[in-house]
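User: For a benchmark we're assembling, each entry needs the component sequences followed by a predicted structure for the full assembly. Here are entry 17's components. Please fill in the structure.
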Amino acid sequence: MSDGRDRRGTDVNNRLINWFRYASPQSFYPLAGRMWPWFAVAAALLCAAGLWISFFVAPTDAQQGEGYRIIFIHVPASWMSMFIYCVMAFWAAVGMTLGTRLSGMMVAALAPTGALFAFLSLWTGAFWGKPMWGAWWVWDARLTSELILFFLYLGFIALTSAIDDPRRADRAGAILALVGVINVPIIYFSVKWWNTLHQGASVSMTKAPSMAATMLWGMLIMALGFWMYSIAVALYRVRAIILERERNAAWVRELAEMKA
Amino acid sequence: MNWNSPAEFFAMGGYALYVWGSFGVTALALLVEPLLARKRRSDIVNSLRRQIAAPEDNA
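Assistant: Structure for entry 17:
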Protein backbone atom coordinates (compact mmCIF):
# COMPACT_ATOMS: atom_id res chain seq x y z
CA MET A 1 0.00 0.00 0.00
CA SER A 2 2.81 2.44 0.85
CA ASP A 3 4.23 2.05 -2.68
CA GLY A 4 0.94 3.09 -4.24
CA ARG A 5 0.64 6.05 -1.91
CA ASP A 6 4.16 7.31 -2.51
CA ARG A 7 3.51 7.66 -6.23
CA ARG A 8 0.54 9.96 -5.70
CA GLY A 9 0.76 13.76 -5.34
CA THR A 10 1.32 15.16 -1.86
CA ASP A 11 -2.08 16.87 -1.49
CA VAL A 12 -3.85 13.65 -2.50
CA ASN A 13 -1.56 11.89 -0.09
CA ASN A 14 -2.61 14.20 2.75
CA ARG A 15 -6.28 13.59 2.09
CA LEU A 16 -5.88 9.85 1.75
CA ILE A 17 -3.72 9.36 4.75
CA ASN A 18 -6.53 9.88 7.28
CA TRP A 19 -8.67 7.31 5.54
CA PHE A 20 -5.95 4.75 5.12
CA ARG A 21 -4.55 5.25 8.58
CA TYR A 22 -7.08 2.89 10.15
CA ALA A 23 -6.99 0.51 7.19
CA SER A 24 -3.95 -1.16 8.72
CA PRO A 25 -4.72 -3.95 11.20
CA GLN A 26 -2.12 -2.53 13.58
CA SER A 27 -3.90 0.81 14.04
CA PHE A 28 -7.42 -0.56 13.77
CA TYR A 29 -6.85 -3.12 16.54
CA PRO A 30 -6.66 -0.58 19.42
CA LEU A 31 -9.36 1.61 17.83
CA ALA A 32 -11.79 -1.34 17.69
CA GLY A 33 -10.87 -2.13 21.28
CA ARG A 34 -11.85 1.37 22.38
CA MET A 35 -15.07 1.43 20.32
CA TRP A 36 -16.79 -1.90 20.99
CA PRO A 37 -17.76 -1.25 24.65
CA TRP A 38 -19.68 1.90 23.63
CA PHE A 39 -21.64 -0.02 21.02
CA ALA A 40 -22.29 -2.82 23.52
CA VAL A 41 -23.71 -0.35 26.07
CA ALA A 42 -25.86 1.29 23.38
CA ALA A 43 -27.09 -2.15 22.28
CA ALA A 44 -28.06 -3.13 25.84
CA LEU A 45 -29.93 0.14 26.46
CA LEU A 46 -31.74 0.10 23.11
CA CYS A 47 -32.71 -3.58 23.39
CA ALA A 48 -34.02 -2.99 26.94
CA ALA A 49 -36.10 -0.03 25.70
CA GLY A 50 -37.25 -2.07 22.68
CA LEU A 51 -38.33 -4.99 24.89
CA TRP A 52 -40.20 -2.61 27.20
CA ILE A 53 -42.14 -1.18 24.26
CA SER A 54 -42.69 -4.66 22.77
CA PHE A 55 -44.39 -6.00 25.88
CA PHE A 56 -45.67 -3.07 27.96
CA VAL A 57 -46.31 -0.11 25.68
CA ALA A 58 -47.47 -1.57 22.36
CA PRO A 59 -51.17 -2.51 22.55
CA THR A 60 -52.64 -5.92 21.80
CA ASP A 61 -53.23 -6.40 18.07
CA ALA A 62 -56.89 -6.50 17.04
CA GLN A 63 -56.45 -9.50 14.72
CA GLN A 64 -53.39 -11.36 15.99
CA GLY A 65 -53.80 -10.88 19.76
CA GLU A 66 -50.51 -11.10 21.65
CA GLY A 67 -48.93 -13.36 19.02
CA TYR A 68 -48.04 -10.40 16.85
CA ARG A 69 -45.37 -9.31 19.41
CA ILE A 70 -42.97 -11.68 17.64
CA ILE A 71 -42.61 -9.07 14.87
CA PHE A 72 -40.67 -6.83 17.29
CA ILE A 73 -37.72 -9.18 16.88
CA HIS A 74 -38.62 -10.86 13.58
CA VAL A 75 -38.56 -7.69 11.47
CA PRO A 76 -35.35 -6.21 12.99
CA ALA A 77 -33.57 -9.59 12.75
CA SER A 78 -34.59 -9.88 9.08
CA TRP A 79 -33.41 -6.34 8.33
CA MET A 80 -30.07 -7.03 10.00
CA SER A 81 -29.59 -10.30 8.12
CA MET A 82 -29.93 -8.44 4.81
CA PHE A 83 -28.04 -5.33 5.89
CA ILE A 84 -25.03 -7.26 7.25
CA TYR A 85 -24.74 -9.12 3.94
CA CYS A 86 -24.66 -5.78 2.09
CA VAL A 87 -21.94 -4.51 4.43
CA MET A 88 -19.98 -7.72 3.82
CA ALA A 89 -20.31 -7.23 0.06
CA PHE A 90 -19.15 -3.61 0.46
CA TRP A 91 -15.99 -4.62 2.36
CA ALA A 92 -15.44 -7.46 -0.09
CA ALA A 93 -15.51 -4.94 -2.97
CA VAL A 94 -13.13 -2.62 -1.08
CA GLY A 95 -10.78 -5.54 -0.44
CA MET A 96 -10.84 -6.65 -4.08
CA THR A 97 -10.22 -3.18 -5.53
CA LEU A 98 -7.85 -1.61 -2.97
CA GLY A 99 -6.25 -4.78 -1.67
CA THR A 100 -6.56 -3.69 1.97
CA ARG A 101 -6.03 -6.64 4.30
CA LEU A 102 -8.38 -5.30 6.95
CA SER A 103 -11.38 -5.51 4.58
CA GLY A 104 -11.19 -9.29 4.37
CA MET A 105 -10.96 -9.48 8.15
CA MET A 106 -14.08 -7.28 8.49
CA VAL A 107 -16.00 -9.53 6.07
CA ALA A 108 -14.97 -12.59 8.07
CA ALA A 109 -15.91 -10.88 11.36
CA LEU A 110 -19.42 -10.03 10.11
CA ALA A 111 -20.36 -13.42 8.62
CA PRO A 112 -21.22 -15.30 11.88
CA THR A 113 -23.38 -12.41 13.14
CA GLY A 114 -25.19 -12.21 9.80
CA ALA A 115 -25.77 -15.97 9.82
CA LEU A 116 -27.18 -15.67 13.33
CA PHE A 117 -29.67 -12.97 12.33
CA ALA A 118 -30.71 -14.93 9.22
CA PHE A 119 -31.33 -17.94 11.46
CA LEU A 120 -33.30 -15.81 13.95
CA SER A 121 -35.36 -14.34 11.11
CA LEU A 122 -36.32 -17.85 9.95
CA TRP A 123 -36.84 -19.15 13.50
CA THR A 124 -39.06 -16.30 14.71
CA GLY A 125 -40.87 -16.36 11.36
CA ALA A 126 -41.69 -20.04 11.87
CA PHE A 127 -42.92 -19.33 15.41
CA TRP A 128 -45.15 -16.60 14.02
CA GLY A 129 -46.26 -18.64 11.00
CA LYS A 130 -47.44 -21.65 12.99
CA PRO A 131 -50.21 -19.86 14.94
CA MET A 132 -51.06 -17.31 12.20
CA TRP A 133 -50.81 -19.39 9.01
CA GLY A 134 -51.07 -22.85 10.54
CA ALA A 135 -47.66 -23.89 9.16
CA TRP A 136 -44.10 -23.59 10.49
CA TRP A 137 -42.81 -23.30 6.95
CA VAL A 138 -44.12 -22.71 3.43
CA TRP A 139 -42.09 -22.56 0.20
CA ASP A 140 -43.01 -18.95 -0.30
CA ALA A 141 -40.67 -16.65 -2.29
CA ARG A 142 -39.86 -14.48 0.76
CA LEU A 143 -39.14 -17.44 3.04
CA THR A 144 -37.17 -19.33 0.41
CA SER A 145 -34.97 -16.35 -0.53
CA GLU A 146 -34.26 -15.71 3.18
CA LEU A 147 -33.32 -19.39 3.56
CA ILE A 148 -30.93 -18.95 0.62
CA LEU A 149 -29.41 -15.96 2.44
CA PHE A 150 -28.83 -18.16 5.49
CA PHE A 151 -27.13 -20.77 3.28
CA LEU A 152 -25.02 -18.04 1.64
CA TYR A 153 -23.72 -17.07 5.10
CA LEU A 154 -23.01 -20.71 5.97
CA GLY A 155 -21.40 -21.21 2.56
CA PHE A 156 -19.17 -18.16 3.11
CA ILE A 157 -18.04 -19.47 6.50
CA ALA A 158 -17.43 -22.99 5.15
CA LEU A 159 -15.58 -21.73 2.04
CA THR A 160 -13.28 -19.31 3.86
CA SER A 161 -12.46 -21.75 6.65
CA ALA A 162 -11.62 -24.48 4.11
CA ILE A 163 -8.80 -22.35 2.57
CA ASP A 164 -5.65 -22.14 4.67
CA ASP A 165 -4.05 -19.08 3.07
CA PRO A 166 -5.99 -16.05 4.47
CA ARG A 167 -5.46 -13.88 1.38
CA ARG A 168 -6.83 -16.57 -0.95
CA ALA A 169 -9.66 -17.28 1.51
CA ASP A 170 -10.51 -13.57 1.49
CA ARG A 171 -10.61 -13.46 -2.30
CA ALA A 172 -12.79 -16.56 -2.62
CA GLY A 173 -15.09 -15.26 0.13
CA ALA A 174 -15.26 -11.81 -1.50
CA ILE A 175 -16.45 -13.34 -4.78
CA LEU A 176 -19.13 -15.31 -2.95
CA ALA A 177 -20.20 -12.19 -1.00
CA LEU A 178 -20.39 -10.08 -4.19
CA VAL A 179 -22.26 -12.67 -6.25
CA GLY A 180 -24.60 -13.51 -3.37
CA VAL A 181 -25.58 -9.90 -2.69
CA ILE A 182 -27.96 -10.13 -5.68
CA ASN A 183 -30.16 -12.21 -3.37
CA VAL A 184 -30.75 -9.23 -1.03
CA PRO A 185 -32.97 -7.20 -3.42
CA ILE A 186 -34.67 -10.47 -4.35
CA ILE A 187 -35.61 -10.97 -0.68
CA TYR A 188 -36.69 -7.36 -0.32
CA PHE A 189 -38.88 -7.25 -3.43
CA SER A 190 -40.04 -10.89 -3.28
CA VAL A 191 -43.35 -9.84 -1.72
CA LYS A 192 -44.01 -7.57 -4.73
CA TRP A 193 -42.65 -9.73 -7.53
CA TRP A 194 -44.38 -12.92 -6.49
CA ASN A 195 -47.75 -13.64 -5.00
CA THR A 196 -46.45 -14.58 -1.56
CA LEU A 197 -48.18 -15.76 1.56
CA HIS A 198 -45.78 -13.51 3.44
CA GLN A 199 -47.27 -10.06 3.84
CA GLY A 200 -45.86 -6.95 2.13
CA ALA A 201 -43.42 -4.54 3.73
CA SER A 202 -44.66 -3.17 7.08
CA VAL A 203 -42.39 -0.16 6.78
CA SER A 204 -41.46 1.39 3.46
CA MET A 205 -39.46 4.41 2.40
CA THR A 206 -42.17 5.72 0.10
CA LYS A 207 -45.42 5.53 2.04
CA ALA A 208 -46.63 5.95 5.60
CA PRO A 209 -46.20 2.77 7.67
CA SER A 210 -49.30 0.62 7.93
CA MET A 211 -49.17 0.20 11.70
CA ALA A 212 -49.65 2.00 15.01
CA ALA A 213 -46.93 4.49 15.92
CA THR A 214 -45.95 2.65 19.12
CA MET A 215 -45.49 -0.60 17.20
CA LEU A 216 -43.33 1.18 14.63
CA TRP A 217 -41.20 2.80 17.34
CA GLY A 218 -40.76 -0.50 19.13
CA MET A 219 -39.54 -2.12 15.92
CA LEU A 220 -37.21 0.76 15.02
CA ILE A 221 -35.65 0.92 18.49
CA MET A 222 -35.16 -2.84 18.52
CA ALA A 223 -33.61 -2.66 15.05
CA LEU A 224 -31.22 0.04 16.26
CA GLY A 225 -30.35 -2.16 19.27
CA PHE A 226 -29.57 -5.13 16.98
CA TRP A 227 -27.53 -2.78 14.83
CA MET A 228 -25.41 -1.64 17.78
CA TYR A 229 -25.09 -5.26 18.92
CA SER A 230 -23.82 -6.30 15.48
CA ILE A 231 -21.22 -3.52 15.40
CA ALA A 232 -20.04 -4.35 18.93
CA VAL A 233 -19.67 -8.09 18.33
CA ALA A 234 -18.09 -7.61 14.87
CA LEU A 235 -15.52 -5.17 16.27
CA TYR A 236 -14.78 -7.60 19.09
CA ARG A 237 -14.42 -10.52 16.69
CA VAL A 238 -12.27 -8.61 14.19
CA ARG A 239 -9.75 -8.04 17.00
CA ALA A 240 -9.45 -11.80 17.49
CA ILE A 241 -9.12 -12.28 13.71
CA ILE A 242 -6.39 -9.61 13.53
CA LEU A 243 -4.41 -11.42 16.22
CA GLU A 244 -4.90 -14.78 14.50
CA ARG A 245 -3.62 -13.46 11.17
CA GLU A 246 -0.90 -11.13 12.44
CA ARG A 247 0.42 -13.55 15.03
CA ASN A 248 3.99 -13.29 13.73
CA ALA A 249 4.02 -9.48 13.51
CA ALA A 250 6.29 -7.61 15.90
CA TRP A 251 3.57 -5.18 17.04
CA VAL A 252 1.40 -8.06 18.27
CA ARG A 253 4.20 -9.19 20.56
CA GLU A 254 4.48 -5.66 22.00
CA LEU A 255 0.78 -5.51 23.03
CA ALA A 256 0.05 -5.04 26.72
CA GLU A 257 -2.28 -8.09 26.79
CA MET A 258 0.59 -10.36 25.71
CA LYS A 259 2.72 -9.37 28.72
CA ALA A 260 0.26 -10.13 31.51
CA MET B 1 -50.33 -1.42 30.71
CA ASN B 2 -51.42 -4.57 28.91
CA TRP B 3 -51.29 -7.08 31.76
CA ASN B 4 -53.29 -7.46 34.96
CA SER B 5 -51.06 -10.14 36.51
CA PRO B 6 -47.69 -11.84 35.90
CA ALA B 7 -49.57 -15.03 34.97
CA GLU B 8 -51.42 -13.16 32.25
CA PHE B 9 -48.11 -11.77 31.01
CA PHE B 10 -46.52 -15.22 30.75
CA ALA B 11 -49.62 -16.70 29.11
CA MET B 12 -49.38 -14.13 26.25
CA GLY B 13 -53.06 -14.54 25.44
CA GLY B 14 -52.56 -18.18 24.51
CA TYR B 15 -49.48 -17.52 22.34
CA ALA B 16 -46.97 -18.32 25.11
CA LEU B 17 -45.14 -21.07 23.18
CA TYR B 18 -44.72 -18.92 20.09
CA VAL B 19 -43.88 -15.61 21.76
CA TRP B 20 -41.48 -17.08 24.35
CA GLY B 21 -40.09 -19.54 21.80
CA SER B 22 -39.13 -16.56 19.63
CA PHE B 23 -37.90 -14.13 22.28
CA GLY B 24 -36.21 -16.90 24.29
CA VAL B 25 -34.17 -18.27 21.40
CA THR B 26 -33.25 -14.74 20.26
CA ALA B 27 -32.09 -13.77 23.76
CA LEU B 28 -30.11 -17.00 24.07
CA ALA B 29 -28.44 -16.49 20.68
CA LEU B 30 -27.49 -12.88 21.47
CA LEU B 31 -25.97 -13.99 24.79
CA VAL B 32 -24.09 -17.02 23.43
CA GLU B 33 -22.53 -15.28 20.40
CA PRO B 34 -20.52 -12.75 22.49
CA LEU B 35 -19.36 -15.62 24.74
CA LEU B 36 -18.11 -17.52 21.68
CA ALA B 37 -16.37 -14.37 20.43
CA ARG B 38 -14.74 -13.93 23.84
CA LYS B 39 -13.54 -17.54 23.79
CA ARG B 40 -12.07 -17.05 20.30
CA ARG B 41 -10.15 -14.01 21.54
CA SER B 42 -8.91 -15.62 24.75
CA ASP B 43 -7.79 -18.70 22.75
CA ILE B 44 -5.60 -16.65 20.42
CA VAL B 45 -4.28 -14.42 23.24
CA ASN B 46 -3.31 -17.48 25.33
CA SER B 47 -1.71 -19.15 22.32
CA LEU B 48 0.32 -16.01 21.56
CA ARG B 49 1.40 -15.65 25.19
CA ARG B 50 2.71 -19.21 25.16
CA GLN B 51 4.47 -18.57 21.86
CA ILE B 52 6.12 -15.42 23.23
CA ALA B 53 7.12 -17.14 26.47
CA ALA B 54 8.69 -20.12 24.65
CA PRO B 55 9.50 -19.04 21.07
CA GLU B 56 11.39 -22.23 20.14
CA ASP B 57 8.24 -24.34 20.66
CA ASN B 58 6.47 -22.57 17.79
CA ALA B 59 3.20 -23.97 19.11
